[in-house]
Amino acid sequence: MPHFKALRVHQGLNGRFASLESVSLDELTPGEVVVRVAYSGLNYKDALAITGKGSIMRAYPRTAGIDLAGVVEHSEHAAFKAGDRVLATGAGLGEWLDGGLAEYARLPAQALVPLPPSLTLFDAMALGTAGFTAALALTRMLENHQSPELGPIAVTGATGGVGGIALGLYRQAGFATVAITGKAGAEEYLHALGADRVIERQHLDLGGKPLEQAVWGGAVDNLGGEMLTYLTRTVKPWGNIACIGLAESPLLNTTVMPLILRGVSLLGIHSVEVPRQWRLKLWERLAGEWKLTDLKGRIVRAVLGLEEVPLACKELIAGRARGRYVVRLAAEELDPPQR
Ligand SMILES: NC(=O)c1ccc[n+]([C@@H]2O[C@H](COP(=O)([O-])OP(=O)(O)OC[C@H]3O[C@@H](n4cnc5c(N)ncnc54)[C@H](OP(=O)(O)O)[C@@H]3O)[C@@H](O)[C@H]2O)c1
Question: Domains of the chain (ranges plus CATH)?
């Protein structure tokens, strides 16, 4: 493969910009394993990198894309051989490593996970970092004694990738779920994903006291800012809040009251540098006990070509998108014809 297509982000004199280019393997960051990429996916972080709105990459130019799923083309590491089906989420892709929005990627073996047999390459990218992060949040909450008896789990940014998959996963794990969304008219969509109840963000009384009436057993927050502050005031004693995102704001303006008077825990969720054993275990759960059915019909908004990615990223930044964008990189189908 002398040259192949890649979506690269550059730092120019007038700021960062993305361009679709022809590159060779030699131009990529080093790694022992070359992967023919079947699919990637778009996350909010990809949108920040590709639109230039966020400082995501550690050096330029870099291939964008924090996720990929594909087939090993060549390996100089004993853990992988040509023909193996693999996936990668986070682990430095699209940040300090060249990422997955390209026909080929060259990665350290450490960044790769063997594709669990019950998932297709497509499924892996329908989940992507969004699904992995939702599973990490659920795991951390369960480890900290979150139980369905405590009450329903509020999920903010519910029509987004992380939020939408979280609704399904928490439901699968036995929790009642409440979707909190900024979008009018999303009820049917959110119920289909796993929401027991849907609340429009505009209709919530956010209150102002350090402690308001406690109504949520726990929460999954993708927004930060006022919404996260509200959740700290309203989660019940011993509940957990998984702090995932900052789509609204990176700020958190609260007090210690919920922590010391209700025993509420704010759990940090970081999906990039995750200990390998956790990573493998989380994918095992996503492919097993927490496996979501009909990802394509329920959570995938569209399957895009590489040239359609910049426009989709603008939709993500504007908060207009619903669900997940999967990006197809290989011209022919690399998944087996049927499962
Ligand atoms: N900690 C980690 O490791 C990790 C991993 C993955 C993602 N994240 C972060 O988690 C967040 C969600 O990621 P994602 O991939 O699910 O993003 P996404 O698919 O773009 O969804 C974000 C959702 O947040 C809401 N939203 C978007 N812009 C908003 C704004 N300006 N104000 C208020 N709400 C807004 C929208 O949902 P509604 O309209 O339904 O409210 C939108 O669908 C992002 O901040 C992302 O960077 C963090």
Answer: 4-118+291-328 (3.90.180.10), 130-268 (3.40.50.720)
Q: Is the CB of 181 under 6 A from ligand 1?
A: yes
* Residue indicated by tokens 């329920």: 298
Residue 286 near residue 132 (C-beta atoms within 8 A): yes
In sequence order, the β-bridge partners of residue 295 are none
The rounded Å distance from CA 24 to ligand 1 centre is: 33
pLDDT in tens, 247-301: 999 999 999 999 999 999 999 999 999 999 999 999 999 999 999 999 999 999 9
Closest Cα to atom 31 of ligand 1: 248
Cα dihedral: 113, 115, 119, 121 (round 10): 100
pTM confidence score: 0.97
Structure token digits, residue 13: 């004199």
User: Does the CB atom of residue 320 touch ligand 1 within 6 A?
Assistant: no
- Tokens coding 210: 């350090």
